[in-house]
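@channel anyone free to eyeball this complex?
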Amino acid sequence: MKIYVTDMSGNTHELEATEDWSVMEIIREGGIPILAQCGGSCACATCHVYVDKEWKDKITPPDEEEIAMLDGAFDVTEDSRLACCITFTEELDGLRVSLAAGSV
Amino acid sequence: MSDKHTTDAVIIGAGPTGLFSVFELGLHDVKCHLIDILDKPGGQCAELYPEKPIYDIPAIPSCTGSELTAALMTQIKPFNAAFHFGEMAIEMKKQGEFWQVKTDAGTVIEAKVVVIAAGGGSFTPKRPPIAGIEEYEGKSVFYAVRKRDVFRDKDIVIAGGGDSALDWVLNLEPIAKSVTLLHRRNEFRAAPDSISKMRALVDAKRVSLQIGNFEAINGSGGQISSVAVSDEHKNVKGIPCNALLAFYGLTMKLGPVADFGLGMEGELIPVNTADFETSVPGVFAIGDICTYPGKMKLILSGFHEAALMAKKVFAYVHPERRYKFQYTTSSSDLKGKLHVSK
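replying in thread with the prediction:
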């Protein structure tokens, strides 16, 4: 299974995805720099990504804590998510996300 | 005016590792001063996850970041460490027998050893990723209020949705010419009392509330003239102002430690695992900031590293004394230091 991550320079990387890992962990372990300063506890907003529109419906929507934590991110749009809060499942094979400013 | 101190060990960083170092060093009769950029102890435990439970502290099935910090502060109380909060270590140099560490507040601490327990670096305000914002910082764009009077009679935009943003809306409204609160959504995560006070000011038209995204700043020569804000339909409008306060929380930046001459590996300090000394004798690094084969960034690793560091520091601070391994359970000497019954 794969995910595709577009970095701040616009380059897209194909990464091996593992079920039940967070998208932040897949990015970090895949060797793409992502700040994720709090280590994945939804406490810092430095793993902010934009989810490709076509994938939005397949992902569990953000909970209140994640929405509140996005207040500490910049350039937040309706596609904004914290990568530590998206758990990868089989249905997300092929997921596309882009890193946002403040996450690298 | 400089504030000068002399001690045995200066610890940079008052997170869990820095705090537990006070305990381990204290058992070895090493007196400590600690420097931390935050205004409170606890580091990431205090700033990022004070209310979140931690489950992997040995023998403590669950405690929050603030509970862990409070427990460590109690544990190290017998050793009377001196804390320098709200200060950043900016320079480290050898002066004869002593290391001298300077802070951005002008404090100078002379010590026989330096222990760097700086975690992921200094917590500094998040800067909006807007090209050219540097030019305005400290002139008309601010991330903190140092002098309230700077904002008297100003048209201020305050961006953010947490306690800092709301506190300053309430605090500056009486003296400002106008206050606009800018937030990306019409919900706030702050003290309920601050939220209701802010809402009342908005209802009374004493504060303007703008819901939208902060897009750009306009102005020249460091003087802001307006903030560009987009709404949910991507319509951009300008809010005229002559001061902007942006409160998006804090982020960790390594800062001046990078230039301390410690042979950095990226943002980490290599150490040897026998005593956690760096490539520079008398300078130690422990916790998240140090690296060695197999390193894991866990609080418990920092505690272990502190214990081994303290043993070597004892040799620097008390070279005339013979090292003796002791347990707190059995040693009347250690019990005396902890002020518990012998």
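from a first look: The interface with chain B takes residues 35, 37-39, 41, 43-46, 67-68, 70-77, 101-102 of chain A (CB under 8 Å).
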